[in-house]
Amino acid sequence: MNDQQLLRYSRHILLDEIGIEGQEKLLAAHALIIGAGGLGSPVALYLASAGIGKITLVDHDTVDLTNLQRQILHTTERIGQAKALSGQQTLAQINPDVEVVALCERADEAALAQLVASASVVLDCTDNFATRHAINKACVNAGVPLVSGAAIRMDGQLAVFDPRSGNTPCYACLFPPDQNFEEVQCSTMGVFAPLVGIIGTMQAAEALKLVAGIGESLAQKLLLLDARNMEWTRIKTTRSPDCPVCSHK
Question: Which top CATH class is 3-236?
Answer without folding.
Answer: alpha beta
